[in-house]
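In response to the reviewer comment on reproducibility (Comment 2.3), we provide here a single inverse folding case reported in full, input and output, so that an independent group could reproduce the run without further information from us. The structure tokens appear first.
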């Protein structure tokens, strides 16, 4: 259920000076930026602080937390907790899991239920089939496709939050956290920064992004949302620019990942209910209080489509979305009622 979207931070650079209300000057705040590859993407940490050493230490701790979550949630690393769990699991048997995996799976199940299965982390067997299909440019064999579908369904997964256990109800099930783990990692990294006193901070997981207090002298962090959506006056696509603080945003889209098989375009985004890749090009951006929610809902709404997806957003407190579809050269834009009016084309 991995998906790719992009949000871009419009940089704020330089050193800024501020005076206290008493008139005494406080230490200048500098902008620091750090990068690390994890979960198959580039993670960026941006923060404002007075001392380089403290900033380096905080950013390293935040990025280490992301790496730790990757070692838990990855479906690529054979040694990850997730992979090991699926390899050892027996149908109907409760398996102990870590606190992080418990939290991710509990939230995933909540989104699965409210989306009617449009979001479903049990989609792992289908994910593997479609990875091969994209490489070979051939549809999955019918018998293997049928077998994989029998192992998919969020009701086949039980998570006990108190006991921190998991039950897979059928042998051979495989979990794929590609639609939620990056957002969860971003949230945990932001927690690390806040605990170390860096509240003017941003963590970006290549499309899953959370921001804290605004940069000095600004109302918020400027974030460009790249979509299929907003044509400029010269006919080229342009980005929506938002100014955000103390919130999270995630974009799910297939502008860069799709395959054409037998003349039909298939997205890398799978519909767990049908087992097939989506056939309509789309870009979905969700704003929510935390990146875990934004990440999962962006994936879910991509699958649900603009009409049902916007209905879900309307039922969910504190969440807004921008949904763009493209068929040929025709773009259609759907915005939730509370989508930030301060967004502008750039």
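Designed residues, in position order:
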């Amino acid at each position: 259920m991995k998906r790719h979207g992009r949000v871009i931070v419009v940089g704020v650079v330089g050193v800024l000076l501020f005076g206290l209300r008493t008139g005494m000057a406080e230490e200048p705040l500098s902008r620091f930026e750090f990068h690390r590859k994890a979960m198959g993407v580039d993670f960026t940490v941006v923060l404002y602080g007075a001392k380089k050493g403290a900033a380096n230490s905080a950013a390293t701790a935040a990025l280490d937390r992301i790496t730790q979550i990757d070692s838990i949630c990855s479906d690529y690393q054979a040694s990850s907790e997730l992979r090991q769990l699926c390899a050892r699991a027996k149908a109907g048997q409760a398996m102990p899991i870590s606190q992080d995996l418990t939290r991710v799976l509990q939230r995933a199940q909540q989104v699965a239920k409210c989306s009617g299965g449009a979001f479903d982390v049990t989609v792992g067997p289908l994910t593997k089939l479609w990875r091969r299909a994209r490489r070979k440019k051939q549809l999955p064999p019918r018998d293997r496709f049928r077998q994989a579908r029998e192992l998919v369904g969020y009701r086949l997964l039980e998570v006990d939050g108190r006991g921190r256990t998991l039950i897979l109800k059928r042998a051979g099930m495989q979990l794929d956290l590609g639609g939620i783990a990056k957002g969860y990692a971003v949230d945990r990294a932001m927690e690390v920064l806040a605990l170390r006193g860096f509240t003017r901070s941003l963590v970006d997981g290549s499309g899953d992004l959370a921001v804290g207090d605004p940069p000095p002298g600004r109302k918020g962090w400027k974030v460009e949302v790249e979509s299929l959506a907003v044509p400029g006056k010269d006919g080229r696509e342009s980005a929506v620019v938002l100014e955000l603080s103390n919130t999270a945003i995630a974009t799910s889209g297939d502008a860069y990942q799709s395959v054409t098989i037998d003349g039909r375009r298939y997205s890398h985004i799978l519909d767990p209910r049908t087992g097939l890749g989506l056939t309509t090009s789309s870009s979905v951006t969700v704003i929510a209080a935390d990146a875990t929610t934004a990440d999962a809902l962006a994936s879910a709404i991509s699958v649900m489509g603009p009409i049902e997806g916007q209905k879900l957003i309307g039922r969910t407190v504190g969440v807004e979305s921008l949904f763009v579809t493209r068929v040929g050269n025709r773009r259609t834009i759907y915005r939730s009622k509370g989508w930030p009016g301060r967004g502008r084309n750039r």
